[in-house]
Amino acid sequence: MAAIELDGVTKQFGSLTALQGVDLTVEEGEIFGFLGPNGAGKSTTINILLDFVRATDGSATVLGHDIHEEPKQIRARTGVLPEGYDVYDRLTGRQHLSFVIESKDADDVPDELAERVGIADAIDRKAGGYSKGMQQRLVLAMALVGEPDLLILDEPTTGLDPNGARLMRELIREENERGATVFFSSHILGQVEAVCDTVGILQNGRLIAKDSVAGLREAAAGDTVLRVTLADGDGTDDAVAAIEELDEVSTVTADGTTLTVSCDSDAKMAVLNAVEESGGEVANFETEEASLDEVFAAYTEQQEQEQAEVDA
Amino acid sequence: MSTEQNPVKRFLGDVDTSIKNSEFADWYPISKKEFRDTVRSPWIWVLSFIFIVLFALPALLGLYFNIGQQFAEAGASLTTDAYVRFALPIAAPLLPAVAIVIGYAAIARESERGSLKILLSLPYTRGELLAGKFVGRSAITLIPVTVGFLTTLLVILPSQIEIAWESFLLFALVTMAYGVVFTAFAIGLSAAMKTARRTMAASLGIYVYLQVFWSNLGAGLGNLLSDHANIGEVTQLHVELFVSLLSPIAAYRTLVREILQGSPIRSRLLLTSSPQVTCEEMLGGTLEMTQTGVECTNAALPPQYGTVAVIGYLLLWLVVPLVAGYYVFENKDL
Q: What pLDDT is attached to residue A150?
């Protein structure tokens, strides 16, 4: 059974279309990264899954329950870190955790939860005095109550320092190993790349890609970057000219004796041969796999181009 | 463990557990959270202070200056009924304002700030959330009212004022219900409105209208119908009385007067522009002047003006805003 299943979900706010027929399946036990620029519709999707916002069209299930018919059953088995949340300033960390434990009829111990997210020292202080990062950790601890089958985390690393972000990744892995499905949204690609099994890219309310991290890289293979260092700087111009003639190459830039070439991943040898033929001598070369950032940019550009063609 | 030894704590713990285990009390943790959170607001203590001053002050005046003597019935000793007469015109306008301040932010503020998303990420339906908010905030409203009454009792007990327990306790009970009604009214609006500021404006606006203009509405409507629809004088008085009783403030006042006078008829007569016609033509009684004021004898009060009906009109202001607020809240995007 899929943990999350969206079927043609559309949401309109007045004349603005936030989501357009999104179909998405997140398998049980997966760590799913939900990527997209700000305003793409990530939070709207999450808000629909949690029944905060009602879809204009389409249907969805979470953990096998219809989102609109049985939101309570869904929430009983889901831990949520919502976007744009706020804590209760006048209540302590312990009171927050006790409230969630009681609400979910769980038997967690507040101190242990606080320990896991690193706010054990502050548990008896009022949450209004917490820093943004500590509040984030507190709400994360609240999401972990009752060993949920599904964790929905909306931009979980916003407001966290590098240590906090690392802790977040560790917790996501721990929870996943325990058996939980993790669904988290982010516009920071490094976070997603580091922990996700599967990634979906949302743009302008449409899911434009869904694949494994490796699969997405392959799909955007044109973005392999090759760095070639020449033995001496004399032949640089000739080498650049020779490389530019290759069909598989999109751009070449020269900086002293170093040439940076973006090309298809299988064009590496052709590039090196071209350099040799132009009379240059290769001292060193390295390839860089496209980061998800670049994959994302490639997807986004591709979409925009297609859109432009449609408009034309 | 100390909780095992302290019988009060153990009892409270038992109550807590049994409510928690009840099938119909899924909202209970919310009301507890709500109470804990709101009770820590310094505002509650300011309101309690105001209530202590305004509720206990008449008692103090009666005790030290014997001012209440003039209110006591001739020949009778000074009782707490005199105190109730002092306190009624204070409680009737003040308590709704306090309850609105306590209730207006209940849902709209959480929605604006984003903590509502945390609440609704937990296994609660929106209806349960509303129920939990209502119970928790009503308990908060009852704090200043209870503290006010207890202080009054403490002041009166050692004095020469005799405590008329029945009327005093009924007054306390009706006043508490009155506070809860306006808390529900504000929470219902809070569930329906977008922002806390708008909720405050709307609820205070309605309150001021009820307080200042509603008393003229019944009479005005009666006159209008009499001028244009050619209705008789008795019908006109029916319109006047019925419309007046629909205001929660008038309903509360007439219920308290009924407790003091022991008769619903006399307190209803005060709501009409012509007590004599009301008594004689509408209710078929005889108006008499007695030592304690006008008395309408041998009259029969139609059930729509009876005690049960008036309590019903008061409770309408609890039920209608909560139900309407629930429907708007249930169907809106957060």
A: 96
In the listed set A190, A218, A246, which residue is the last one of a domain according to the structure? A218
- pLDDT value at A245 more than 60: yes
Claim to verify: residue A88 and residue A180 sit in the same structural domain: yes
The series of mean pLDDT values per 10 residues for chain B, 334 residues long, is 65 77 79 89 82 78 64 61 84 90 91 90 93 94 90 84 89 95 96 93 94 84 82 85 93 93 86 85 83 78 91 96 95 87
Q: Which one of A52, A73, A103 has the shortest CB-CB distance to B29?
A: A103
**Joined tokens for residue A242:** 């020779």
Q: What is the count of structural domains for chain A?
A: 2
- Contacting residues of A for B334, CB less than 8 Å apart: 47, 52-53
CATH of the domain at A272: 3.30.70.100
At position B48, the amino acid (one-letter code) is S
Token pair listed for B245: 């009783």
Write the DSSP symbol of residue A69.
T
Nearest residue on chain A to B21, alpha-carbon basis = A105
Q: Cβ of A54 and B333 within 8 Å?
A: yes
Domain that holds residue A272: 222-288
Counting one residue from chain A and one from chain B, the pairs whose CB atoms sit within 8 A come to 77
Write the CB contacts of A56 (distance below 8 Å, at least 6 apart in sequence): A10, A11, A12
- What is the arrangement of strands in the sheet containing A282-288, beginning at the earlier edge strand? A249-255, A258-263, A224-230, A282-288
Rounded (to 5) percent helix, strand, coil in chain B: 75, 5, 20
Q: Is residue A11 part of a domain?
A: yes
Q: Which amino acid is at A300?
A: T
* Residue A97 in domain: yes
Flag whether the pTM goes above 0.90: no
Q: Least CA distance to A91: which residue of chain B?
A: B37
Q: Chain A: give the shortest CA distance to residue B308, in Å.
A: 38
pLDDT band at A302 (very low <50, low <70, confident <90, very high): low
Burial class (CB in 10 A: 0-12, 13-18, 19+), A97: buried
Give pLDDT, residue B2.
46
Nearest to A184 by CA among A23, A24, A46: A46
Contact A80 B333 (CB under 8 A): no
Q: Are residues A206 and A249 in the same domain?
A: no
Judge whether A44 lies within some domain: yes
User: Residue A190: which CATH number?
Assistant: 3.40.50.300
Instruction: Show residues of chain B in contact with A151, CB under 8 Å.
Output: none
- Chain A from 132 to 171: CB within 8 A of any B CB: 139, 142-143
pLDDT, position B4? 54
- Sign of CA pseudo-dihedral A247, A253, A254, A259: negative
CA distance B294 to chain A (A): 54
Q: Where are the domains of chain B?
A: 26-212+316-331, 214-310
Give contacts of B43 with chain A, Cβ < 8 Å.
Answer: none
Tell whether ipTM is more than 0.90: no
Pairing verdict, β A150-154 and A78-81: parallel
A295 lies in a domain? no
Q: Indicate the SS3 state at residue A291.
A: coil
Q: Residue A221: pLDDT above 60?
A: no
